[in-house]
From TrEMBL:
Gene name of the encoded protein: trmR
GO annotation (BP), single: tRNA methylation
Family that this chain belongs to: Belongs to the class I-like SAM-binding methyltransferase superfamily. Cation-dependent O-methyltransferase family.
Keywords for the protein's UniProt record, in alphabetical order: Magnesium, Metal-binding, Methyltransferase, S-adenosyl-L-methionine, Transferase, tRNA processing
EC main group: transferase
Protein name per UniProt: tRNA 5-hydroxyuridine methyltransferase
Superkingdom in the source lineage: Bacteria
Enzyme Commission code(s) on record: 2.1.1.-
Keyword tRNA processing attached: yes
Source species: Metabacillus litoralis
Function: Catalyzes the methylation of 5-hydroxyuridine (ho5U) to form 5-methoxyuridine (mo5U) at position 34 in tRNAs.
């Protein structure tokens, strides 16, 4: 991960976002809603712009920030996104409606692990973005990877989890933290060892993993 001085410098270079985007960022900060860090989402948007996916599936809408950023950066892309928390789901729906993006962002409420039949009706997907409950990352991957197109790419946020995956777990204060970090480390190990796939990890934001099938 970038040290604080480098991160501050990098973020100072990021152009100003549209006013409504900055308002969502301010809302997230005020209400303690986790959204992608500035450097992380800029890298994600750059990669997606290069890829030009027609359909993206996102797990973890929160208040709609990343889905909206993707939709604005990719005007020909449709996004399906799912959020477990009802309050955040309603906030996301409001933000999406205010920006007139309902025709390109399909929002689901519920547990992604229970909605695969509904989600599959909107696939297959060219990109799959995982940014939800970290302990379930492996289950998300296994369930939705078959819905990926042949050249599809999986993007996973928070894979470094503030650097805790690289530390001695005995330093973590609670059993819950140790379990979460263990499962996240297992997910990362799986990404880099999964047969038929190649992965890389970019230490921006809270860590962004990029995974795609190997060419045959």
């Amino acid at each position: 991960m970038l040290n604080e001085d480098v991160l501050t410098y990098v973020e100072s270079l990021i152009p100003e976002r549209p006013q409504y985007v900055e308002q969502i960022e301010e809302f997230a900060l005020k209400h303690d809603v986790p959204i992608m860090e500035k450097s992380g989402i800029e890298v994600l948007l750059l990669l997606l712009t290069m890829q030009q996916p027609k359909k993206i599936f996102e797990i973890g809408t929160a208040i709609g920030y990343s889905a909206i950023r993707m939709a604005l950066s990719l005007p020909n892309t449709h996004i399906v996104t799912v959020e477990l928390d009802e309050v955040r789901y309603k906030q996301a729906a409001l933000h999406i409606k205010e920006l007139g993006l309902e025709n390109r962002i399909k929002l689901f409420l519920g547990d992604a692990l229970l909605l695969s039949d509904d989600i599959s009706k909107h696939g297959p997907f060219d990109a799959f973005f995982i940014d939800a409950t970290k302990a379930k990352y492996s289950k998300f991957f296994d369930l939705y990877e078959p819905m990926l197109t042949k050249d599809g790419i999986i993007y996973t946020d928070n894979v470094l989890f503030k650097g805790t995956v690289a530390r001695d777990r005995s330093e973590l204060k609670t059993r819950r933290q140790r379990t979460l970090v263990r499962k996240l480390d297992e997910y990362n190990q799986m990404l880099f060892s999964k047969e038929g796939y190649t992965s890389t990890m970019i230490p921006v934001g809270d860590g962004l993993a990029v995974t795609r099938r190997k060419e045959v």
